[in-house]
Amino acid sequence: DGIRDVERSRGLGDVYKRQDLSYDEYRYVEVPDPFHSGIDGLQREGYFIPATVLDCDKWIDIAAMKTHCIATITLAMKLRIGTLANQAYGPPESAYGETHQYGERGVLDAIIDLYCYHPADYAIVECIWGTEGQGPQWGNDIKRNIIIAGQNAVAVDAVGATLMGFNPWDLEYL
Which pTM does this prediction carry? Predict the structure, then answer.
């Protein structure tokens, strides 16, 4: 593609790796405790996680700013729901159902659990166009022309939540 062509023309080689996690190899791993909090997995003891998530050198979250009918907002941390290994859990509608089977509390706990496998090294949330209302599918499009970025995804999401009109302290997974 165009980005790879520019990298190669400038002698950069491959700067990043794109991987469709739907077809990635996966391993069952207990939920780690990267921040030494003493808290084990909140929703379950472990998950089937794509090898790319477990083995990558750096992880960059790039999210669109949207509201969410269960998680309230879907920014950098909420992206992790999309990292469930589809080959283990089935297609996305089944994989996401795995986290939803425990209800709203289960989704929020799964966001925290999945984030622990490889906390983001950098997070970017864009809201050139975002969604508000009954998101993510049925919300209203809004134009905000905002980009938030930083090395702490929790802080980036807290800023995003504030700009969206939510109190970050009310969002349990932040």
Answer: 0.81
| Cβ–Cβ < 8 Å for 146, 126 | yes
d(CA 33, CA 120): 14
Q: What is the mean pLDDT of each run of 10 residues along the chain (174 residues)?
A: 72 67 88 78 84 88 88 88 76 57 72 88 92 79 92 95 94 86
Q: Is there a cis peptide before residue 136, judged by omega within 30 degrees of 0?
A: yes
Task: Tell me the three-class secondary structure of the chain, residue by residue.
Answer: CHHHHHHHHCCCCCCCCCCCHHHCCEEEEECCCCCCCCCCCCCCCEEEEEHHHHHCCCCEEEEEEEEECCCEEECCHHHHHHHCCHHHHCCHHHHHHHHHCCHHHHHHHHHHHHHCCCCCCEEEEEEEEEEECCCCCCCEEEEEEEEEEECCHHHHHHHHHHHCCCCHHHCCCC
